[in-house]
Amino acid sequence: MPSVVLASRAHLCLLDDVRESKHSQLMCQEKRDKGLCPYYHDIEDEIPIIAGIDELVQFGKQYQRCPYFCSRNNFYKSPFIVCTYNYILDPKVENVTVGKMSDLHQTLLVFDEAHNVDNVVVDAQTLTLSLDTLELATISLNRLSKLLSIEASKRPLENEYKRLVEGLKHSELTKETEEERQKLFSNKKTTKRIEEENDIPIDTITSIQFVILMKGIVNFFREKLREAPIHKKQHINEHHSIPIKSVVDSFCDSLALTPEIVSLIPLRLHLLIKALGDEYGGRQDVKGDSFYYDDLYLVADFAALLCSCQEGFSYVPDVVKMDKDNCFHCVLNLICVDAANAIQPTLNKFHSIVFTSGTLSPLKTYINILGLNNVVEEKQITSSFSNTRRICPLFVTKGFDSISITSQTPDTSGTEVKQDRILFSSQYTYRSNRLIIHSYGRLIVELSKTVPDGILCFFPSYSYMNICISYWDEMKIIESIYLNKLIFVESNDGEETSLAFQNYRLACHTGKGAILFCVTRGRLSEGINFTNHLARAVLIIGAPYLQSEILTIKERIEYLDNKKVISKDDYLIFDAMRTCNQCVGRCIRGKNDYAVAIYADKRYRFNDSKIISSMPQWIVDALEKRFTDISADQSIKLTKEFLMNMSYLFNNQPNLKSQKGKTIWTLEDIHKEQLSSFNE
């Protein structure tokens, strides 16, 4: 089937400096405006029938065409479009790509790997302002003031007014360029309402007045930042959010604006900067090489979203510790707390939507969180994994090390001393417990002796991973691991992580194997395939529960709890287990893959229905009672047993007849399923 992929310049641009730039969009536009891009021509030409990233890049190099714009200008012709979530769920991106298609109401939308859709929606519509942002926005406004004072800028400003008025009347602003910044949270109804109510339209404000207005907006938020420490001190043990309506009323009253007009500010700002010819700091008559307006746009977007959002958002001033200087800073958070409310405008555009994932469990929870009220069918696909059991899940709750427990005997005056195994846990109170960290280290050492090829080891956070590695180095555990396997570590830096992954693969392919230390919710926990011998074991150290005291997380959990969507405890378990499921899923990517999955924490319990119901069926089918609540040495024994059995498995493949009606369907099975669906 003909298909095309939508991807960013980071994947498709053929110019190294543009592809690697933080401001690739503006650098690309600058080169195109100055005629410096040798590939930007004939972009309407036909592209390969199957136009994936590799095919587009190869096509671009062969025919000297820009793969990025060839994709953007031809995707609407294809019956099959592949893109990342942000092309569908982020309003800023969706409005200039998929949202421009006229036949979305006849389109089937498929969310693959849909287990994380709710988080993507929430993140796309959550904004934060800091004092640094406001200071940089002020610098941008001062630059605009200087540009407006220059006589040469008068001519393009007249064109700006004409284009703005024409654009609002005919809604054709986006046709000038696919890069044109969209109205983030406004629509045609907003413009019509302004005309009907005889409000002061945004185009009657001169450019100088508009800059003054933007300075007023910046000053308003600066004043709110000054109030943040007082607000936090007064509500230290209470609900931190402020009713949005009161903030919007204060904002509009202080600036003499209506919410409808505020929603148009991001568009007006973009048109002004474009009319001045300064989108990429290109004006030479004002100092500021490589000058960008990102922070000023963020302020405008924040104001527009604040005045446009209704139910499902929280406005929260806060004081947080920043990583850059390890100091406390005031911030203003506009948090999307309701994924269901945020995703509905997108879902309403399409004819049908399919959510699919190998770790979409439990289905009812996803349906509730996303507010899917008109679900036609929900189904768990059966798998042949339960027959061949190529995954061996182990709940390891106790370590190798023992501790002495002294207790007073009730019937005598003496004391009783018992030896008990140390319990595994990554809870905050145990983060620095050297006995627990030592037991985790010993478990890795024994696994490195037992498991061939590659081992993935996931930590709940970067900080805990660094603590463990530091302690293990002191305890000579790292040295013991090196006797069996090489060690590679994921970092916050994307390039370092990519290099570590490449060398890990090389070690597994050519040497005695390696261990890759990763972080749950990190770069390597999703989207990377560790097929075959790249992961014969996955070790999850601790339980990756969210830090519920982080304000953005706390606000969302409280909202879901208050709305009776899902309770706080249930949500924390659900989110932790879907994170674990994704980590384990890295090692099962094909029919010949097999691996041991070790959950090392006392909180993984076989009799906890919330834990089990949050695991996908292909893992639950392989989970036996004897695999749970075991010690570290028992897990090593079971690992050896499983790997030994797997070494003989492929000589004794299961009878294909046993898969009939499950993973192998005949024409009769298909007709039967269709009839069943029709009757429902």
From TrEMBL:
Q: What are the recorded GO MF terms, alphabetically?
A: ATP binding; damaged DNA binding; DNA helicase activity; hydrolase activity, acting on acid anhydrides, in phosphorus-containing anhydrides; iron-sulfur cluster binding; metal ion binding
Q: Does the keyword Membrane apply?
A: no
Q: Which GO terms describe its biological process?
A: positive regulation of mitotic recombination; transcription by RNA polymerase II
Give a yes or no for keyword Cytoplasm in this entry: no
Q: What is this protein called?
A: DNA repair helicase rad3/xp-D, putative
- Sections of the chain in a coiled coil: none
Source domain of life is Eukaryota
| Record-annotated Helicase ATP-binding domain positions | 1-184
Which PROSITE patterns does the record cross-reference, listed alphabetically?
HELICASE_ATP_BIND_2
Matches recorded under InterPro entries? ATP-dep_Helicase_C, DinG/Rad3-like, Helic_SF1/SF2_ATP-bd_DinG/Rad3, P-loop_NTPase, RAD3-like_helicase_DEAD, Rad3/Chl1-like
Record-linked Pfam families:
DEAD_2 (PF06733), Helicase_C_2 (PF13307)
Keywords, A to Z, come to: ATP-binding, Helicase, Hydrolase, Iron, Iron-sulfur, Isomerase, Metal-binding, Nucleotide-binding
Q: What GO terms fall under cellular component here? A: nucleus
